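Chain A, query sequence.
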Amino acid sequence: MNWLAHSAKGGYPAQTYGDHVGCAVSTACRIAADASHDLPQSAPFVETVGLGTEFHDLGKLDDDNQTVLASPTGKALPREHVDAGTKHLFGLGADTTRFAGMLAYAHHRGLPDVPDQKARGATAWRGDEKGGRFDPTAVIARTSAHLGDYLHRHHEALARSPTIPNTLTFKPAALDLRMALGCLVDADHGDTARHYGTPPLAAPLLHPETRLAALDAYVAALKSGDTSREAERAENRRAHYAACRAADTAAALVECDSPVGSGKTTAVMAHLLRAAQAKNLRRVFVVQPFTNIIDQSVDTYRKALVLPNETADQAVAAHHHKTDFANPLTRALTTRWHAPVVVTTAVQFFETLASNHPASLRKLHQVARSAIFIDEAHAALPAHLWPLAWQWMRRLVDHWGCHIVLASGSLARFWMLDEFYPRLKDAQPPRKRLPTPLVGTSLRAQLGASETRRIRYRQHHDALDLDALLDFLTARPGPRIAVFNTVQTAAVVARALEEKSDREKVEHLSTALTPLDREKTLARIKARLADKDDQDWTLVATSLVEAGVDLSFRSGVREAASLSSLLQLGGRVNRHNEYEQTDVWSVTLRQGAGIRQHPAMRASVSALEKLFKRDRVTPDACTEALKIEVGEKGNPEQVSTLFNMESAKQFMSVADNFKVIASETVTVLMPGPFLDAIQNGAHPDWKSLQSHCVQIWATKKIDFGLAPINAYPGLFAWNLAYDDFIGYMAGALDVYAVKSGKTLIV
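Chain A, predicted structure.
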């Protein structure tokens, strides 16, 4: 009999159980073998993934479920379909089968907290507490009565004898199980998509030696500049590229603290491609703290790395916002990290490592056997998340064949500080492991000396209200850049500058704008900077312009924050050594008139104040600044708590607590033809979606009246004012004005 796995829909026939499970197992084992090739415990890893995939849908063979699957009504299956496979796998009693049972249990609901499951006793890993068809008592009884029938049908559908595990020893860490679930889910979702007419696209191979040659040609063709100062800068960048390209690839954990503007985008990529060639790595990940840096880096990499007959966006993929929707209607919007070069954000990368959700984990196996560039590492994570992230990075290096470079012009070596290691009950902290420097001491000194001649860091000692700030800003030589700690403050200052002078004298760049509008704004800013007759204007921005953006202003002003933030802004001033020594100012602001201080910045601001007094505002003081901050805040309890959760395989708890951005955000589409088309039934791809949306705190859904888009669960529509100057803050400031009483509605 043709037992079914999926109903007929959309003009496609029902999918048989044998077709789905057989294809999914084959794909899952291939994915798992590719991810773990030549690595420790590859055989038990592949077996675990294969077993979990083979039995993940076993309960669909229940008579009641088959009746629904045979009739394309769209109804939910009446019988819980996960428990049968889970029960069977746990009952086989081997290491691999127990963990395969966990994967089968988690392939829809996600990886749970293992201690909570153990505490359930006889109902552990059976159903859950939701009641109804998930009620453990009813689920267990149904499985007990029919498991033999399910297994008979299973083997009949696959035309094979009962599967016998190899009794392999398997002791996976939590990250390994996330990898395993990702393999299962990618195969499961991918095969379902294949049956319904949208098979996953195959990606080009990395071909590291060929891409490295293309990168060499691109770098060799770069101009040296028109002045002696610019020529010196270009020569330093060429020396840096050559050193990184020639660096030994034997070490798998590497640091690069070359100064801002030394060309790390291309130099580190050259090193990673050589490492990929030497170690047979599959792809390169570039992890950056801010979405706007992605656009610039992607543009550079597509010019330098795309090979003949390749499509640019398939060779170098950009992943901006969190579009990992679990709902089947939205699943097509999920990106899969399968390109040879993937440029993504720290939020995406590290929260995927922490995730327990199947939709997010689907892409995680792509990270195995990859070269990883943590760019602008100083800004990648909040301090209390780095210890656990450091453990994951070491696991990726030691057990998953990865080669990792942490780079920043203001690199804080958190791994050197005792305060950053967790205090674990009855256990020693993890052994320190020091990355290998990518660039030699003499070249680093040469680059650093050039940096100190280029920029002077200064401090304004008086707190400035909005009017005083505007006067101070406009008195600096232009073009000038001013960076603030919150999206709201940046929008308030930009609007005030517009009113004080005119729109032509101010630009604004923050995450209040969609990526599409940020891209347009950035292009306009670059054009204005290239116009030597256009000098008297100000870019008002948030920290997203501090790292990795190739902009060069005449002067800079930074709302007081961390030392690394101030230094990074220095990389946007006199970047190419066009001017004689220039100034970057640190200023403190008074609250009021819409200016709001960022409470999380207090320790950073205090540390910067101390370093100004010590005359230590230099790149080599970043670790010192971090030590001061830790001394003021203490070792957060979250550090040890996260470690203990990870060790105990509390997957849900780690996912809930490892948040790069502390508050939950939602994806919101801005007004315009794209939103109108979606509301009228259009089906966008995820790349188009990213270009038209922003991330907004979930806590603001009521304040801003965010409207759910029913056709795409998890997406919301923005119904307030939006413009291409201050983005959604045009509507948000109106709301704040009403709430503060400045605007009266009658």
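The longest strand covers residues 283-288. Residues 136-158 form the longest helix (23 residues).
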